[in-house]
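[stage:ingest] chain + small molecule (zinc ion)
[stage:ingest] validated
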Amino acid sequence: MSAKLIAPGVWNVIPNGMAAAYLVVGETKALLIDSGAGEVDVKAVCAEITSLPIELVNTHYHGDHTAGNKDFETVYMHPADVRKMTGWTQISPIGEGFVFDLGGRQLEIIEIPGHTPGGIAIYDKDANIMFTGDTVGRKPIFLVEGDYDLDDFEATIKKLQTYGADMYGAHDMEVNRAETLENLLETLALYRAGKIEPVETSAPMAGKVYMSANGTGFICPGK
Ligand SMILES: [Zn+2]
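[stage:predict] done
[stage:export] tokens:
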């Protein structure tokens, strides 16, 4: 079993991969949040954890979060990212306020555009846990041309500040709290003002990395 228990009934099912995915188990069903980059058979890992029916939701469309979708009949995601998807799995569009009722456990959708137009967070209010995809973290956050919007990103970070949740992302797998959000706003302001010197990176994601002294930053692939 490679999965890691991070909170009661909450597993990181890809703790050692390129991108995390999380399984939240209720009394009557479970919700899988993202499906990984393809290096792990996520469905099989989930089946070791629970025999309950599993629904799948994507925080956003990027390929390192959706490669395992092919093993599921249906995926829930925001319509603004659906247009970016090609393929195989039937899509159920969801947005702000949609609730997954897992039996004794409810997870609410919070729209967090910025990293992509259709980015969503999945919020367990009772446990004070939120799954934020690529939007929050201490690893450089991808700014992919055609996807990102810095005004939206700023508004999203300010929106997340109002929740005070423990946030789990896909690349920085440790919990993030208020300090990371403050740091991201500071880094965003510095980045926009051209006050962070970029560092060139090489494969697999060649581009420029803009890291602030506070430990948060952005990566611009292909630049
Ligand atoms: Zn992403």
